[in-house]
Every structure is written in C-alpha cells, then in structure tokens.
Design a protein that fits this description.
GTP-binding, 13% strand, 46% helix, six-stranded mixed β-sheet, Rossmann fold
Amino acid sequence: MSAADQEAKVAYAKKHNIHHLFELLAHRVLDRRPDDVYAFLREQITDIEGVEKRKGTYDPTAAHHEAPHGSSSNNENKPGPSGAPAPAPPSGPKKITIGVFGLDNAGKTSLISCIGGEATKDTTPTVGFTPTNLETPDHHVCIYDLGGGATFRGIWPHYFHDCHGIMFVVDASDKARLAEAAESFQKLVQHEYIRGKPIVVYCNKRDLVSGSAVAEVMGDGGLDVANLVGRDTPTKIAACCAVKDRDEGVDEGADWIITTISARYADLSATVKQQCDAVKQAKKERLEAQRRRVAEAKAAEEAAAASS
C-alpha cells in the first residue's frame, strides 16, 4: 500500500468514525449475544444511524467551549488559571457542561432522566456518548452521559477538558463491584483536567441498602472520597434513588453542582478554555507529525522506485 493510499484510508476512517462504530457494534453483540448476529447487526446499524442523525457528531478532541456567558461583574477582570485576566463575558444564561461518569448499571442514565423531571426504570446501557440539554432562566446545561462499560471507560478522559463539573455515580447495592468503581473514581479524580472542578458523588440505589452502607461505599473501604479528592476540588456526596420522582438526593446534588459552578463560573470557564486550547494544540501537533511521516514514507518510496 502506498503512503497516499494509507493517508486516504486513515482520513476516511476518521471522517466516518469507523473505529467508534466497530467498537459500538462489538460491545452490543457481546452484551446481547443474539442468536442471529447478522440480523442483529443490521438492526443496530439502523438504530445507530438514527441516533447519530438526531444528535449530530461530536469530536471529543476538539475545543467546543465558547466564551463564558453570564458571569457577574465582580468576576469580569479576575485572573484565570494562567494568571492572565479573564475576558469580560457577555450577559445571558451561563453555558455549563457536566460529565456523568460511573460503571455500567450504576444508574447514570436514570439519574439524568430524574434531573430532567422524568424518572424512569426502563433504560438500556449507554454505549459511547449521549448529550442531554437542560435549560433554566439562568443556565444552559449540557450533560454528557458516558458509557460505563469496561470497553468505553478509556474514552472518558477525552471529555474531561470540556466539563465545568463532574457527576460520579456508584451503585451502593453492588458490593461485588465496589473495588472496580473505586479504581475508576481514583483514575478520574487524579486526572489533570479534573482537578479543581466541582464533583458530586451520587451514592445511587440507596433504597436497596441500609444507611450505614452509604458511609461504607464513600469511606476508605470504598471510594475513599475524603482522601482521594484534593482540597482545591469542591466535593459533595449525595445518597439517592434515581428511579424515584423528585428524589431529594438527586435534587440536592444537582442544585449543589449548578450553584457551585455558577459561583466559580469565571475561573472554571477560563480553565475549560485553557484545557480545550491545549487539547486542540495537541491534536494539531499529532496531525502535523502524521503528515510528516506520510511525506517521508512517500519520499522513500519514490527514491526506491527511482533507484530500481
């Protein structure tokens, strides 16, 4: 295969998200284990095509954050994370992005539905990425629902730079997977793009456990929230039942993270912009390096052909 052919194939795969599509299909086949694999794949491709058309495409390596909106006048000239003055934002609702993470079956999708006022028990595992938009008079909130299966946890860091705050959901009733949840939580909170951003940890399915179980899940035998999360990272623990209409724990956690982000909006927006710029620059450098490698390979091919 020539270097030009290789470059064209890579460009095609990126344009049409081929790797993501194959990963989606493989995950669903292994999860459902259908008798007629071919019929199942045809059905899934049709379903995925419909979802993609409705939600559009999202490139987690691109900078999606816009200039901050609606910060109070007291924060207009407050320095950002790099020490430079943050630009004075225009008035209007604050645009907030929140990422929801946790293992599969922890209740992330149910939690988002409950926050939106439509608690439901009938959910299917999230595969990949699903955005949900909520609006209030003061905020435009975009919530990222990330699949929690082992196959998809590797994509979580690709969304960290876009988030003003984080929701982490753990199934309080699933002691068998508590260590797995704790490991995922540790990796999340220690990432450089998470530090300093508000985190609400939802201890879900509290209706299935005793009150002491919640403390066990959050303590040093579980997620160890108090010791893992740095002092510069605002944190809230909320026990909840995400399939219950107007659950107090769900509302308490959601209200807290929106209020906390809003109070620190200028700083958080500056942080998000800085991180998005860094991700964008890293992507640019990777593409330039790839083009150089392709050009060098092509030149070597031409030189070999000329000498033969």
